[in-house]
Structures
1.
Amino acid sequence: MIGTKQAAAILGLRPGTLTRAVWEGRVQPPAKGPGGAYIWTDADLRRAAWALLGRDLDDTVSARMENGQ
C-alpha cells in the first residue's frame, strides 16, 4: 500500500491530477488511512490505470520504463 504521491508517480501523473480524478468520480476512491490520506493498493492502481490511461498498469509501467521515465 502506498500514498497518492507514489501512486501518481507509478502512473506517470501528478499527484493533484490523480486526486482530482478521484474527486470528480473518474477513479474509484481507495481506502483512507487513519490520518485521512488515501492508501493505494495494487488493485486501486490497476483500476486507475484503466480509467485514466486506458491501459493495464503493467503496460503503463513498461511504457514508462521504455521511455526512460
Note: The first helix runs from residue 4 to 11.
2.
Amino acid sequence: MKPLRDLLKHSSIYAIGQIMTRIASVLLLPLYTNCLTPADYGITAIMDLTATILSLMIGGGMVNAVTRFHFESESEEQHDRLWWTGLTYLITTATVVLFPLWLGRHVLSGITLGTTVTNGSMYYSYALATVFVQIAGQFVDGYLRVRKWSGTFVLISLGRLLVNVCLNVWLLVGMKMGIEGLLLGNLLASGVHTLVLLGVFLKTRGGYRFSLPLAIEMVRFSAPLVLTAVLAMLMHEADRYILRALVSLDDVGVYALAHKIGFAVNTLCLLPFASIWAVAIYDIDRMPRANEMFARVFGWFVSGIGILLLGAALTVHPILPLLTPEAYGPAIDLIAVILLGFFCFGLQLQFEVPAMLAKKTGLLIPGSIAGVAVNVVSNSLLIPRLGLWGAAITGVLTYSAFSFTTLFMCRGLRRIPYPWTRSTLTLAGFCSSYLVLRFLLFPHTGIIGQLAFSVVCCSLWTVVLFGREGLEWWATRRQLATQPVSDAPAPEAVCEDRSLCRT
C-alpha cells in the first residue's frame, strides 16, 4: 500500500501550496477587480490564453516524457543525461519559437486583441518573456515532483507567491500601472522563481550531458501529449476568442472572472492529486490486482472532487459579492456550471491511465479533437443565443466529449472495473443538492445561513460517501495497535517453484 500512502502524503503537501495560492488569489480579488475594469480583465484573459498555448506547444509533454523515461533508467549517469537533454531541448525550442513572435508582436496583438487595444505590442513583450522564463521553471518543477521533494516544491512555490503578490500590489496600487504592472510583476516573480529552481537542479544533478537520440525518443513520446495539451487548452479557453468576436470586452472580462474562479477552485482540488498521480500510477501498476486498485481510486476521486466542487459552487454565492464590484455580478451564477464542466474534465486523468502505462499516448489525441470540435460548434451555436451562459454550457459538453472519448479509446488496453452506478448516482446527488440549496433555500437566507447550509450539505455528503471506509480504517488501526506482539518465530517462506528451492 506504499504507493497509496505516497499518493495521500504528497497530495496533502502539494495541497498546502495550492491552498495558500488560492487564498492569496481570493484576498487579492478585490484589488484586481477594482484596479482593472472588466475590459482590462478581458484583455489579460486573452493574453493568458495565448501565452499558455505557446507554453504548451513548446514544453507540453516533455515533463511527462522525462518522468516516464526516468523510471526506466537505473543509474544516476542515465538520469543526468535524461534531465539535461530535456532541459536543453526546451530552452532551444523556446528560443526558436518565441524570438520570431517577439519580432512580430504588433501582428500578434492585432490578431488576438484587435486594433482597439493600443498598447498590445508592449503587453506581449512582457508576456512572451514570461513564457520563456516559465518554461524552464515548469521543467524543474517536474524534476522535484519525480524526486518526490514535495516539501521543497511547496516552499519554493510559496516564495514565488509572496514575491508575486508584493510586486503586483506595488505596481497596481502604488505605481498605478494597470495591465502593464500586472504583466511586469508576473515576469519578475517568474524570473526569481525559475532562478531558484535552476539552482536546486544544478546542485543536485551531475555534469552536463546531452543525447540527441534520447531527445528524439522523448520528442516522439511527448509529441502526442503536446497536441492533446494544446487541444485541451483550447477546450478550456478558446471561447475567449469567440466571445471577443461576438460580445464586448466587458462581457469577456465578466466571463473570464467566472472562469478564473472556477479554474482556481478546480486547480486547488485537482492539482495536488494530479501532481503525484502521474508518478503513482507506475507504482500502482506494479501492485497485485492493480486494476481493482485503479477502480477504487476512481471512486474516491469522483466522491472527493465532487464534494469539494459542490462546496465551492455553493459558497461562492454569499462570498463573491463581498469581494468584487457590481460590474462583475453576472459572474456568480456562471461559476456552478463552469465547475460542473471541470468535474467532467478531471475524469480524463483517470481514463488516460491505460495509455500512459502502455506508452500509447497517441490514443489521447481523439479525445482532444472531439472536445475541441464540440467546443467550436457549441460555442458558435449557443453564444449568439445564450450569451455567456452558452459559453458555460459549452464547457460541460466539451469536457464530457473529451473525457469519455478518451475512455472509449483507452478501454481496450486495460479493462478497469470503474464503479459506474455509484459514481453516476453520486454526481446526480451533488447536482440535486446544489439546485435545492441555490433556488429553494438561499433566496430566503442571509450570508451566514447560506454558508452554514453549504457546510452542512458537504459534511453530510462526506459522511455518506466516506464514513464507512473511514470507520473500517480506524477499526483496523485500533486492532493493530492493541494486538499483542507474538514471540513465536516467523514462519518459513514457502517456495512457489520447488525446482528452485534449496534442500
Note: Residues 486-503 have pLDDT under 50 and may be disordered.
3.
Amino acid sequence: MSEPARILVIDDDENVRKILEMTLKANGYTVDTARDGKEAIEKSNRNFYNLALVDIRLPDMEGTALLTAMRETTPRMVKIVVTGYPSLDNAIEAVNKNADGYIVKPFKTEQLLSMIEERLRKQREARRYSEQKVAEYIETRAREQESKDKQ
C-alpha cells in the first residue's frame, strides 16, 4: 500500500485550517498547516508535500504570490486556490501562476475531496510517466555504452 499523500493547508483562519485538517486526516491524508505565506514557504522548503490548499488572501501576501514562491521550491506540488473572495481577476491570475485548481468557499466537502483526488491521481500518473522515461533513457545510454565498449 502506498504512503498517504501529504497536504499543506495554508489559511489565516484558524477554524478553516482545523476543519480542513480534520476532514483531510479523516480521509487518509497526512496534513500540515500554515497560517501565512512565510510559514508556508518555510514548511515547503523543509518538507515534501504532494498538494497545497492555498487561501487567496493571507495576512502577509496574496495567495497568488505564494503560488509562485512555492512553485520555485517544489515544482511538482499540486496547488489548489481556495477563496472566499472569488473574482475573475484572481481566478485568471491563479491560472497564470500555475494553480492546478480553484475552489470557492463555502464549498461542499465532497467537491473539495473529489478535486484533491483527481489532481493527486494526475500527479501519480505524471510521476510514473517520468520514471518510465528516465528508465528508458538509462537503458538506451547503457546500450550505447555497451556498443562503444565492443568497438
Note: Residues 6-121 form a domain with the Rossmann fold fold (CATH 3.40.50.2300).
